[in-house]
Amino acid sequence: MHQKWLQSTEVEVGNVNKALTFYIETIEVSRLSALAFFAAGEQKYKGQRFFWQNREKTLTLVGLGHAYVIKNNAGHNRFDLIEDEWRELTKNIIKEESEPQPILFGGFTFDPNNEKNGEWDNFPQSLFAVATYQLVIRNDKAYISVHLVTDKANSLQEFDAMRIERDDLIHAAQVKELKTYEKPVMTNYLELKKQDYLQSIEKVTSLIKNKKAEKVVIARTLEMEFAENLSSPQVLSHVINEQPESYLFGLEQDELLFFGASPERLVKVKDGYAYSSCVAGSIKRGKTADEDKQFGENLLQDAKNLGEHRYVVEMIAETFAKNCTEFKVPKHPKLLKIRDIQHLYTPVEGKLNHNATILQLVKDLHPTPALGGVPRAEALSIIRKYETMNRGLYAAPIGWLDAEGNGEFAVAIRSAALIKHKAYLYAGGGIVADSEPTSEYEETLVKFRPMLRALGGQLSE
Ligand SMILES: C=C(O[C@H]1C=CC=C(C(=O)O)[C@@H]1O)C(=O)O
Ligand SMILES: [Mg+2]
């Protein structure tokens, strides 16, 4: 096994009431399958793992185990609290340009004020962790870091044992765990509260016509049951194989795996520049290249979809105006074509103010009108009242950041929560004055397809 020792750091970090030491060791390893590394943690770290791959496939992250968890239920303050604790934990870390740093991975739930019960009952409003074993694959190189955050005085022996475990995990990922996974066998499929959903679209369009809001995104849930409990690697393997053009993510908390394949970036920060994307307005893919092109051209001209899109561009542009010294927004949307669907798409980029941070941008941007609505507060209270579900992490920010402030968050759409032998799939759409219940319903069917396919569900077309 090729291993190159890269860094070993021992730093004191001031915590609320105790002094902690953060031990870090990073090695370079010969390239290995990220999914196999994830699967190597099945016995010991199930419930404490994450998987991430960006759209361009230039960065893959896997985390096994929790070296340090930052979580809270602090409502609007949750973004600031995560940022403060992360800064405190990493303030003495020596940042080496060429090496992967400790990464904080996690997500913020869609709406801390939604009190509906269901599969998200035990999930905190913000959940982030530094992995015990962190895999970073970047620029075709694979790095594994061991992290230990402890209040014990001398932990070198413990750290030595962790090195041995690291080598076992790498070995398992490289030689033992390479396997192909069967498609799940679905035994039941339920469109939860379909009538309530259709009625909510009617209700929300009438509220919009009466000027109670301009746009509101309404979503619904599909429940699937399987013959047996599914494993996270099994489910992720199908998503990875079938949705190459999206952000791929998986985040475990105890028995729950939240996973998905999203086309939508919330924000990326790299070296003082910020990048976001407006993705809203949809049409299905055509059966032939010609039909597909025709659908795309129709979408680019369609007043209802351009309306859905425009709200998102306006709001993201305002947020960039507030946080950037300069920024660019193209005048007209382009098409973003992914496997099942085409969207209107406008990329936005800017140079950040000195005091703007990635979590500040997440806080300002979330939820954009592609997921919430306009005005934001009115839209959120309409969602709370008329939507039949608790979104949990669906439509919410999921992603990572490092100690230098670089990072990326996707909007967790085209996603599902898996708990043992049941999965809950989520999809919604932007409702504006001229929305119609049946066409919105059909749009959600298209948006369910990626997760439905990954889980072995029937597809209607
Ligand atoms: C809310 C979802 O999609 C959003 C993102 C792109 C297009 C959308 C639309 O056309 O309605 C939605 O705003 C979803 O996929 O569940
Ligand atoms: Mg739509």
Structure description:
- By secondary structure, this protein is of the alpha+beta class.
- It folds into two domains: 3-176, Anthranilate synthase; 186-454, Anthranilate synthase (4-Layer Sandwich).
- 31% of the residues lie in helices and 36% in strands.
- The chain is built from eleven helices and 21 strands.
- It has a 21-stranded antiparallel sheet that branches.
- Strand 15 and strand 16 form a beta hairpin.
- Helix 1 packs antiparallel against helix 6 (232-242) and helix 3 packs antiparallel against helix 9 (358-365).
- The longest helix is centred in the middle third of the chain and has 21 residues, at 156-176.
- The radius of gyration is 22 Å and the shape is globular.
- The N and C termini lie far apart (47 Å).
- The structure holds ligand ISC and magnesium ion (MG).
- The site of magnesium ion has 6 residues, from strand 13 and strand 21.
- Belongs to the isochorismate synthase family.
- InterPro entries: ADC_synthase, Anth_synth_I-like, Chorismate_C, IsoChor_synthase.
- This is isochorismate synthase.
